[in-house]
Design a protein that fits this description.
This protein has three helices and no strands. The protein is an all-alpha fold. It is globular, with a radius of gyration of 13 Å.
């Protein structure tokens, strides 16, 4: 199965959001920010001029990035 470039970008952006905001702010705030950005992006995609629609797989990729970012942050805090 080939993973679309779009899904990798979704995961990467959310990974960066969670790791960066967890380091600079707080973990719960970082996760909430990533979730709001992810859902907001999908809602935007539904209503924009050239609508691509709400894509559940984009949210799965977003969730993957959030979980990986959280794991990375937690592991770095162990050292």
């Amino acid at each position: 199965m080939k993973i679309q470039k779009d899904k990798i970008l979704h995961a990467l952006i959310n990974y960066i959001i969670v790791v960066a905001l967890s380091l600079l702010w707080c973990t719960i705030g970082a996760i909430l920010t990533a979730v709001v950005v992810s859902v907001g992006k999908e809602i935007y995609d539904t209503y924009k001029a050239n609508a691509t629609g709400f894509d559940l797989l984009d949210l799965v990729a977003d969730g993957t990035g959030i979980v990986l970012g959280l794991l990375t942050y937690l592991i770095t805090q162990l050292w």
